[in-house]
């Protein structure tokens, strides 16, 4: 642990910890008190809201009760009709009213939106509203959304005497919005009502009710479920806007609904948050004081240490030319000297590693090591030299890649490249690049070799043997793949070419084009070469002279020789 941290932590503990203990204690006890107060407040508001909605429903029930005070007579009753119209006028939530006599026949139907019916005589005796009202005096039906938007409920009230019949009303629950809108908790708290299945039937935002979108109101059902799981407590949850709220619930017993009162958590715990901000301000002030004292006490002592730390960071980040200048005459100065020596050694090591990495992109590892040891990076500069150029590629690979799965294509290429790279490395060739299923290899550049043509032909022979072994397994699965090689020898311009971000070692010249053309006409298991390469090989390896051919890009017929491939003794 640094000296600065030691002093800082000691002073921090002396100043900040008492403040922290006091702040945490105040926050904890304040939270408990506020939580209990909010629980009582929201519970009282929920019960009050439930009572208001119950009064709303009972008011409609009482008005319906007036319509079934007297028994029915056999003749049409104009007074009943006037009483029914008066009920519609006095109770706006009732959209339609139907009066049924003791036998269950409909005697009167009045509506705000439909046609009125008098003495229709329709049999309503089997209607659940009639049977349930006769059994329980009052019946509240389930909530239904007419037209997929406005919530309605059927309410039925039976007379005190069976002869008085039953009054059945379709009640528009949209009018509960006036009751809900008047309920406020704090500045932004509000209430909403869910029916027994959990559908929203009243909310300050009436558009939520009229849309009847159960997906949008799912958070409200989840909030009710959380409250039911912990009855008697205010529960934190999410509302339809995604805000965290504190909510309490009270049942509306006569209809089986639930009224939930909620208040945003930010507003509910506003006093607690204010206390926390005060405590945080004191903590920050104490921390600043402790930091100032620690800095004043340790500045002179920690200055050299910071200088060493900065130097170590720079060297660790790769700035090996950075040097730590420290003249204290003690162990810290000796440590700085060791850091400087280490930076110099790392710079040399990095330079050598980067140089070998660049060389290994196109040279065999042993050749790259040789160039690095001799310091012969100039060997990669552009020059004109006689080289043996070898091109090779797969036969039938285009058709194979068109019909095979991508995994199979990439698997063949991976194994094929491994074989080529292994053979090229063994023969100390310069692999300039892979291109699709082909490759280009140079001999006598950048590192001179005594017999480039023979060395290239021996490598081509080993390539054929090893690649054919690889392809033999593929032919068993009807993959008609082959391997051909073209070899030419002559003068070419060789050297590094590319941009500052990427350099490649390659050859340019007529001999490169000739080797590529020979490769393109070589059949499976063939190694074709030009006359210059054949003369350089001589009789050391068996060759067969083929008919001269005119190749693309060349005006005169080219003499072509084929190597005899077999096990060498």
From TrEMBL:
One Gene Ontology CC term in the entry: plasma membrane
CDD domains reported in the protein's UniProt record: CHD, HAMP, PDC2_MCP_like
Subcellular location: Cell membrane
Segments forming domain Guanylate cyclase: 388-519
Protein keywords: Cell membrane, Membrane, Transmembrane, Transmembrane helix
Every HAMP domain range: 299-351
Ranges that cross the membrane: 275-297
Bilayer disposition of the protein: Multi-pass membrane protein
Gene Ontology terms for molecular function: adenylate cyclase activity
Protein name, as recorded: Transcriptional regulator
Organism, as annotated: Bosea thiooxidans
